[in-house]
Amino acid sequence: MRLKRRPASDARENLDQLLDLENGRMSRNMFWDHDIYEQELEKIFARCWLFVGHESQIPKSGDYITTYLGEDNVIVVRQKDGAVKAFLNTCPHRGNKVCFADAGSARQFVCNYHGWSFGIDGGLKGMHASEAYEASGLDKSQHGLHPVAGIESYRGLIFATLDPAAPSLAEYLGDFRYYLDAVFDMDEGGTEFVGGCVKSVIQCNWKYASENFVGDILHAGWTHDSGARAMIGGPVAEVHKFPEQSYHVNFNGHGWEFNQDIVGNAATLGEKDLVKYLYNLQPRVAERLGEVRSRMIGSISSATLFPNTSFLPGQNTFRTWHPRGPGQIELHTWTFVNKAAPQDIKDKWRKGTMMTFSPTGVFEMDDGENWEYSTKTNAGFVTRQQDLYMGLGSNTRLADSGLPGNVFKGQINEANQRAFYQRWLDLMKSKTWAEVPQRDTPMLPTTGTAQEKAA
């Protein structure tokens, strides 16, 4: 089946023609059309809860980081009372960027242009030649830094939204919190980021990266074969041949693909001490969180928090795919570790993530090249008339798994990708949050695969 064609300029008015989830087809214009991208900034990035930092990055009053909500630059700063606030990083006088540093500690922020100064609470405190402004009747209380609409934390992860009508963070994450706890609450004291932030640019559409991490283990045995052989002296395990302990789970666009091998991802770092650490930790995690989640802590798995935050348990890389137009992302990457882990274990994880998922990492280069050419090929007019396929696997949810969210058995499945794009479509079509559907059932109730029936 081929999707009905329409001019790219009509993309915003014909969103339903971009996706045919029933048949697993999608239009390439989703990854190329600039009008669609502008709508994404408004309907997705200006609405959703987006990751802005980890509590460990701003432990003290005045500590701050700067980051992005879509293409809106923001300052995230710890307050005197311990709370966290975030503001648009732009001066309300002439719009200049206020803070140029990525991170630091400050008692105030001062604009380079006219000397407007702001407290860590965002309030306007003063400016150069203040008497001139006073003579004009300027009310300083009305010209502070513009705050984000909401900022909340979960298990040390800080999120912000620009939409005052957005649901709470707890509602937004929903059932997915059950799975987040497997990694970010596996040990007493939680997690922390170590080693700073690595930034890089990839010439690809942001959705290619997000959908890869939402559940595409199938590419690893091919794309990352040479990298795995260099790291551990052998191929990536062909986990798709062993579906009985493998799952896809999703909730409102968030997705996690995992198996139950405990240490599969960690093993690819080539550090036996990391594998030993996780095996020793697993019984304690089972006591805290149950057997299923205790076997996820470093397993072969990947996850995406809709729309643009992803991480890999075991390899412990955490990243945000910041959009920079339909054909470019700015990637921010960190290493996360258990705060209570020994220092040598933390150091080995930091080194391991640099070797695998950094601009020169053996796996990152593989992925980046694939995503770039998946984007660039859409420059061709005739090429853009050809649909893309995402119909692998079954759409039958596992009804008796005992796990929350939409659960699917087996590795050969693009159910999480379909759920990701359904959430994308729901948000793009909805004028308000109240109109966005809550999808806690499978989108396409069809018969299961032979493997699922056997399981």
UniProtKB/TrEMBL annotation:
Which residue numbers delimit the Rieske domain?
A: 49-125
Q: Which InterPro entries match?
A: RHO_NdoB-like_C, Rieske_2Fe-2S, Rieske_2Fe-2S_sf, Ring_hydroxy_dOase_asu_C_dom, Rng_hydr_dOase-A
Tell me if NAD is a UniProt keyword of this record. yes
Q: Name one GO molecular function term.
A: iron ion binding
Alphabetical keyword list: 2Fe-2S, Aromatic hydrocarbons catabolism, Dioxygenase, Iron, Iron-sulfur, Metal-binding, NAD, Oxidoreductase
Query: One of this protein's Pfam families, by short name?
Result: Ring_hydroxyl_A
Matching entries from PANTHER family are given as:
3-PHENYLPROPIONATE_CINNAMIC ACID DIOXYGENASE SUBUNIT ALPHA, CHOLINE MONOOXYGENASE, CHLOROPLASTIC
Record family assignment: Belongs to the bacterial ring-hydroxylating dioxygenase alpha subunit family.
Q: What is this protein called?
A: Ribosomal subunit interface protein
